[in-house]
Write a structure and sequence with these properties.
Layout: H1 11-22, H2 25-37, H3 41-69, H4 73-80, H5 88-118, H6 130-138, H7 141-160, H8 163-189, H9 195-203, H10 212-226, H11 232-237, H12 246-274, H13 285-294, H14 300-334, H15 338-357, H16 373-400, H17 403-411, H18 418-443
Helix pairs in contact: 1-8, 1-12, 1-14, 2-10, 2-12, 3-4, 3-9, 3-10, 3-12, 3-16, 3-17, 3-18, 4-5, 5-7, 5-14, 5-15, 5-16, 6-13, 7-8, 7-14, 7-15, 8-12, 8-14, 9-12, 10-16, 10-18, 13-14, 14-15, 16-18
């Protein structure tokens, strides 16, 4: 099938699918532990600031590039800037998405395993030791590989079905369920004795706890949670009609992302502080701390199952976008079957993800620059490839892409005046690239 003939069936489907691409591990798994390890409320404040002044403009930029070219990531830059150095940005995005999905799917496998175990009540037991349970699951090579394989299988199945019958169809179901489940967890969380201490930790900024590294992590978190920098949204917007306002769509996605991050903090930190647990637990926060907390509440097994299903839904809607950018790039270039490419891409991601899956067991002692394969992959994507990709995109749209086409795409579907466009355009040309450069230089101690 010609990839470009497949379109979103509705604006709502596009927004929910884009929000699904953004809301996943970044908002629910990574955001809470990064917040817990990097200053609580101060980190959350900086994260929101970066999301609004840098992430949102970049999201609009990726939408403009994709719909303006009507091509997936690699072809889009080649069409808009033929025979120029900027054509590499699409390849950068596809490579970034591939690396990201290789370790992302490992966590997806963990969540899938936990979800399956929680339904018959095998996670919360009378004598459960949750740190040991997490270690036994992640420390079992066969189990982590099986979880990885199952998670990628689900992704390949959905992506092989196309846009309307795959990504959009499932996102319309999963995203509303995500919000419903999350609100249930938050209502229960904030009613614990001592919950206010957790709420204050999360919402009351203490800027004395911030340093250059924290700020870089907040910037990376803003990019990670919005899925900008690897041109995922370029591919998504290439399937979009001209009557949809890109600005309002990007704003909707950004607001949903901040809202889910807020819900994640309100769901997790009140429970953590109510039971005297450790907010800076790290990547194991959800898997170790929360089951222990849920075990101490009535109907804890039910709430844990709801939370894990919510988490699985969020990860799936986000991972769909990563496999889609890879699949679309090959399908467009080679004019081959989407189904074949989706399954082959899934197999390649599975193979690439094996070292990350084994990082907590057989390859635990193997390090790259002092990090396991899993942690090194995460750092490479979150703190190098995403910020660099965002820098490339801001320079491309501000200095290379035809300004009239940029303005035309920005203006479709809305009545915004020229002043709004000019403000956004100058942000993209000057504020966004210089902020990324300054934060990066500050984080490594150059300034």
């Amino acid at each position: 099938m010609d990839q470009q003939k497949d379109q979103w069936a509705s604006k709502l489907g596009f927004i929910l699918s884009s929000a699904g691409a953004a809301v996943g591990l970044g908002a629910i798994w990574k955001f809470p532990y990064m917040t817990g390890m990097n200053g609580g409320g101060a980190f959350f404040f900086i994260f929101i600031l970066f999301t609004v002044i840098i992430g949102l403009p970049l999201l609009i930029a990726e939408f403009i590039i994709g719909r303006g070219a009507q091509k997936e990531a690699i072809s889009a830059y080649q069409k808009l800037a033929p025979k120029s150095i900027f054509s590499f940005i699409g390849h950068w995005g596809v490579i970034g998405a591939f690396i990201l999905m290789s370790f992302y799917s490992v966590v997806g496998g963990w969540v899938l395993i936990y979800s399956l175990l929680s339904i018959p009540g095998m996670v919360i037991t009378d004598d459960a030791q949750y740190a040991e349970l997490f270690a036994s699951i992640t420390g079992n090579p066969l189990l982590t590989i099986v979880g990885l394989a199952l998670f990628i299988f689900i992704n390949s199945f959905v992506i092989s079905s196309g846009i309307k019958n795959g990504i959009e169809k499932y996102s319309k179901v999963l995203m509303p369920l995500l919000f419903i489940f999350f609100i249930i967890i938050v209502i229960r969380s904030v009613t614990f004795d001592g919950a206010m201490e957790g709420i204050q930790f999360f919402l009351q900024p203490d800027f004395s706890k911030l340093n250059g590294e924290n700020i870089l992590y907040a910037l990376g978190q803003a990019f990670f949670s919005l899925a900008v920098g690897i041109s995922v949204m370029v591919t998504y917007s290439s399937y979009l009609d001209k009557d949809v306002s890109l600005g309002s769509s990007a704003a909707s996605v950004s607001i949903m992302n901040i809202f889910v991050s807020l819900l994640a903090g309100l769901a997790i930190f009140p429970i953590v502080f109510s039971f005297g647990l450790e907010p800076a637990e790290g990547p194991g926060l959800l898997f170790i701390v929360l089951p222990e907390a849920f075990a101490q509440m009535p109907f804890g097994e039910v709430f844990l199952s709801l939370f894990l299903l919510l988490f699985l839904f969020a990860i799936l809607t986000s991972s769909f976008s990563m496999l889609e950018i890879i699949t679309a790039a090959v399908t467009e270039k080679k004019n081959v079957s989407r189904k074949s490419v989706a399954w082959i891409a899934g197999i390649l991601v599975f193979v690439a993800g094996i070292p990350a899956a084994l990082s907590s067991n057989l390859l635990a002692d193997f390090h790259i620059f002092g990090k396991t394969v899993f942690d090194a992959s995460d750092f490479l994507v979150s703190n190098v490839m995403l910020p660099a990709g965002c820098l490339f995109i801001s320079i491309f749209i501000g200095f290379k892409m035809d300004k009239q086409l940029v303005k035309q795409e920005f203006s479709y579907g809305n009545n915004l005046g020229n002043g709004i466009f000019q403000t956004w355009y100058q942000l993209m040309r000057w504020v966004v690239p210089f902020t990324i450069i300054i934060v990066f230089l500050y984080s490594i101690g150059v300034i």
